[in-house]
Amino acid sequence: MFASNIADVASKVNPLAHYWLWQEFLSDTMEAKYGIVFTVALLAGLTVAHYVVDYLASKAAAISFHGGLVAELVT
Q1: Cα within 13 Å of Cα(14), Cβ side
Q2: Domain boundaries, the chain
Q3: Considering the entire predicted model, what is its pTM?
Q4: Is residue 66 within 8 Å of residue 20, measured between CB atoms?
Q5: Measured between alpha carbons, how far is 21 from 23 in angstroms, rounded to an integer?
Q6: Residues with Cβ within 8 Å of residue 27, at least 6 apart in sequence
Q7: Gap between the Cα atoms of 16 and 8, Å rounded
Q8: pLDDT digits over 28-58, tens only?
């Protein structure tokens, strides 16, 4: 049960943390017309492995969020 709760929290908080941070700082970045968008997810979001699926899924979500944010900012 404990491990299941950790997986549940990780799968919700890790991806949402990127959203919350950008919600806080994006308006200042847009006003300054300068900023750097980076995401720490490395290859973890692009691979699969036993016993860490929740962690890898949260990193895949971070990579997808990053790509979507960059696409919206460019257009």
Answers
A1: 21
A2: 2-74
A3: 0.78
A4: no
A5: 5
A6: none
A7: 13
A8: 999 998 888 888 887 888 888 888 888 888 8
